[in-house]
Design brief:
This protein is α+β, with helices and mostly antiparallel strands and 290 residues long. The chain is 26% helix and 16% strand. The protein contains seven helices and eleven strands. Strand 1, helix 1 and strand 2 form a beta-alpha-beta unit. It starts with a strand and ends with a helix.
Length: 290
Amino acid sequence: MNTIFFDSTLSDDLRRQHLYQGQLFVYSPCPSAIAMVQFARELIEEAFTPLDPRTAQYSLPVEEYVAILAKLKPYFIHHPQSKQLIQGILNELGCDLSKTYFDVPRMRTATSDGYLSSGIAYAFHPHRDTWYSAPPCQLNWWFPIYDVEPDNIMAFHPPYWSQAIQNGSKDYNYQKWNQESRKNAAQHIKTDTRKQPKPEEEMDLDSQLRIVTAVGGVIIFSAAQMHSTVPNTSGVTRFSIDFRTVHLDDVIGKIGAANIDSACTGTNLRDFLRGTDLTQIPEEMALLYD
């Protein structure tokens, strides 16, 4: 059974337990999330000026659009203010910052009607983040920068929470991906030839759940959740932010969602920073998952 908790007052410990069992949590916009949206909008609108970023795809050659994103996204990802705002979100939503570690935020774009769906604006096929070297205790946090609608968000596929799928995760290693594939994202414009874990059997994607939140409204879900990018037919580009967290106690105790079909190697844990002082997760913790 899948349950959605709206504006839950459960403690973070209990919330994580529910998330590891496949439940979803949705929160109304908090001050830090709104501040992060405003910061992201400033950068986006400056990058696309004088065009409206949501419809700029209709005025720009795709190569020029990619060039804009290739500068905009890394700037946002690595800006100190982005990290500070994540710290605020985690604090406002009840996390213990001394034990919660997060990775840098990603700015995602999903253009409309197939304008750009590869490389730096990759449209994700159905997948679990655990296929991509995420630990079972990883949680994903997602929220929109501009208004979204059912035709330009992401979809969850609840039946596959407990149903294994043949997939290509056995060929994926996170360290190798970082060295060879991630840095080349902007080169993949028409098609994306980078090898990523994908389903290797037919799936029933009609049984899906789409959650439309307010701008800055946060969805939290387990890295083991099957989810995908909805084919955007809305007529506007969707801009969103996501980041990931792990709790140190769960990393040490190897607590998290059940691994039913992931066979990848390596770990993304070295990307995670402590919520209080931004120190990297201890190497001995990452070694537990290599």
